[in-house]
Specification:
This protein is an all-alpha fold. It has four helices and no strands. Helix 2 crosses helix 4 and helix 3 crosses helix 4.
């Protein structure tokens, strides 16, 4: 029996979602949104976070589109400010 094209698309979407790797130790802990200070440090000062915290944030970003977009926006701005600080000042 052949499946309808729509059900195949749905199956591919669910497979794509399931294939995002979440470490076994973090399964079930990804639904909690990271706090604002944690996301700020993730975007601007990643070296201030522990390896475990970075893993938790990245596991959450793999499943939460809203937080992923916020992180992309924050990282983009952090990179902009880093480049701005390195630019020569012409007076």
């Amino acid at each position: 029996m052949q499946r309808s094209p729509r059900s195949q698309k749905e199956r591919l979407r669910s497979t794509a979602r399931a294939s995002k790797t979440v470490p076994p130790t973090l399964k079930g802990k990804t639904s909690e949104h990271p706090s604002v200070p944690v996301m700020d440090n993730y975007c601007f000062h990643r070296d201030r976070l522990s390896k475990e915290t970075i893993e938790k944030v990245e596991a959450h970003l793999a499943v939460c589109e809203r937080c992923r977009k916020d992180a992309e926006y924050g990282i983009e701005h952090a990179d902009y400010f880093r480049r701005l600080m390195k630019a020569p000042i012409d007076c």
